[in-house]
Sequence to fold (337 residues):
Amino acid sequence: MMMERNMRYSSGGGMSCCLSVLAALCLSAAAVARGQLTDCFYNYGCPQAASIVKARVSDAMKAEARMGASLLRLHFHDCFVNGCDGSILLDGSDSEKLAAPNLNSARGFEVVDAIKADLEKACPGVVSCADCVLALAAKYGVLLSGGPDYGVLLGRRDGLVANQSGANSNLPSPFEPISNITRKFANVGLNTNDVVVLSGGHTIGRARCVLFSNRLSNFSATDSVDPTLDASLASSLQALCQGGDGNQTAALDAGSPDAFDNHYYQNLLSQRGLLSSDQGLFSSADGVATTKALVQAYGASTQRFFSEFGKSMVKMGNISPLTGSAGQIRKNCRAVN
Ligand code: HEM
Ligand SMILES: *[C@@H]1O[C@H](CO)[C@@H](O)[C@H](O)[C@H]1NC(C)=O
Ligand SMILES: *[C@@H]1O[C@H](CO)[C@@H](O)[C@H](O)[C@H]1NC(C)=O
Ligand SMILES: *[C@@H]1O[C@H](CO)[C@@H](O)[C@H](O)[C@H]1NC(C)=O
Ligand SMILES: *[C@@H]1O[C@H](CO)[C@@H](O)[C@H](O)[C@H]1NC(C)=O
Fold:
């Protein structure tokens, strides 16, 4: 089993492993009984789940290429709060959507609703919100942006509560030093390599001026702009943000905003990272010898970044999943049954 997975990372085989001969090796039921996720979970109850999600994500990205990024980020923001349990999708007064890192920021909820509606039509009550969003929509958001085809694991069930204070405390802020961010990742079992690799998700998507304008003005007594920010990028960002309400957006990877590639790391090598927490992986004085070396390695090799990204996504997707009879399969991702 382990060997099959490793082979698939290098060959990029994706869900096709679940077909034919390998189906016998997946031992889905046994793995689930042990409380583990498996790559063949829906072969039994909803073999078309992955293709339904892929089609919906593809439609959404044709309307707006950025949506792939937004879905990837939802996966991350869900997993860091009470594990990967779809809690970010719940509406209500304790909604995680109202927490600072998500408010006016997390997006893609309507796409999630559309995916879930299709899945309920095809296989009522079978496919969890945690899986169809966390694992599959993020996977296809990455893949359809040109990223790696990693072997996603499935079988998560949906949580029963949202945790707004957990979202406020567990999710990293771009204004924190790298050592604080690394600690937040460590709290959910992710290491420094995972921090650098998963930050590479910022090769797609956008960020609002309020989240990087800290680098543009009055940075210190001697520099009006963050000295680790490329001067020409700084002036174009100043022009973008000036006089606005802070909601204007810039690409996290200006050279190829919607392409999943390793330019994020190349940007950091030339001081073209957008957020403090991006550029800090290469330039901050905050004990970043390890992250700096990793940025150089991934900037030099797309293949190495892609294979590590798949592994770190699987690790992130394994944060405290609800399996067996824990939680439920929500009918509507916005509310518990
Ligand atoms: C390392 C710590 C991280 C910090 C401090 C951070 C911070 C941010 C911020 C501030 C934004 C812009 C939000 C806005 O404009 O409202 C953003 C966007 C984004 N983040 Fe992160 N992030 C981190 C890690 C990650 C990880 C691990 C992933 C996924 C693997 C990720 C994926 C994304 C994506 C794809 C976007 C763009 C979303 C869109 O365009 O809708 N980030 N992040
Ligand atoms: C919310 O998240 C925090 C931080 O992870 C955790 O300590 C707390 O137990 C969670 N609360 C609920 C109700 O799940
Ligand atoms: C970083 O973590 C330390 C220790 O928990 C905390 O005191 C500090 O406020 C954090 N810094 C930021 C900018 O959040
Ligand atoms: C920058 O600092 C100057 C001098 O202290 C001040 O007049 C100006 O309002 C500051 N600008 C911003 C954007 O904070
Ligand atoms: C950004 O847009 C939101 C939603 O329209 C609004 O509430 C907020 O005041 C705007 N400005 C900032 C700085 O977030």
